[in-house]
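Final report, closing paragraph on structural work. Over the funding period we assembled a curated collection of sequence-structure pairs, and we close with a single example.
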Amino acid sequence: MAIRFEEGTRFLVTGGAGFIGSNLVEAILDMGCKARVLDNFSTGKAENIREFADNPLFEMIEGDIRDTGTCEKACEGIDYVLHQGALGSVPRSINDPAMSTQVNINGTLNMMLAARDAGVKRFVYASSSSVYGDEPGLPKKEGHEGKPLSPYAITKYVNELYARNFYDLFGFPAVGLRYFNVFGKKQDPHSIYAAVIPIFVKKLINSEVPVINGDGGQSRDFTYIKNVIQANFLACLAGPEALGEAFNIAFHDRATINEVYHKLCTLLGKDIRPTYGPDRPGDVRHSYADIGKAASLLGYKPEYSLDDGLEEAIGWYRENL
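Its predicted structure, as stored:
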């Protein structure tokens, strides 16, 4: 799906040195638009944005969203904010709930206030499928959330509450995107909180035996990064009925962890039997998204299935992992 903005349109990407953020920056620059990144490199990596350094449309601000002055500076002259800056990972939030709260709630509130005062056209922020918590129903549908299972899930739900409240009070043009298990190039496999696909790829490339948490029967709606890029741009252009709302962003399919592992073994030409460990605290058993609301109000139509995304990304994985 070709989505275009006028040349010279100014985007701010918080967390722009991270996995999703750096892919958004690349897509923005490819359109001939301006991309300003705000990142403190706590989880983002300089190498993710090094290729953009000489592009005159690229600007880097090294700073922290917990600092109000930094947020205000970053929003000056900006048309669209794509707020990806956060501390991800359920296990990380369980290990340090205070830090996740400071960054994900206080930092996001700072960004919302700065964007509101700067008069941006749209504030698109990253939420998460984790907000569904212990709600057992499948597929997951907006308006049917359960009890949060981790501090991370709580922080993302609070972001949504603030966005809705700010729209009701101030007409703040916020749109939330509930990402479901995003994967693709530049996803870090080295962190102890890394996502499952890059961990598997790294292990398999090195002919090491990966550990699968639980029995591997848990399922996820894996979402390729290009679907997420499409959703962010559509959210910038959506009509007023999308404001204050949050939307599932996924492919609307699911695969078990075991199935994903075997797909990667096939793509990489490996035959390695994994070992199985304990379940991770705070993880949901199954995740599968209803994307009807995003299709209706954003015009979202994901083009990349799990298999499509793995096939496209596998070359990058081979070269970089």
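The mean pLDDT is 95. The chain is about 40% helix and 15% strand. We thank the funder for supporting this effort.
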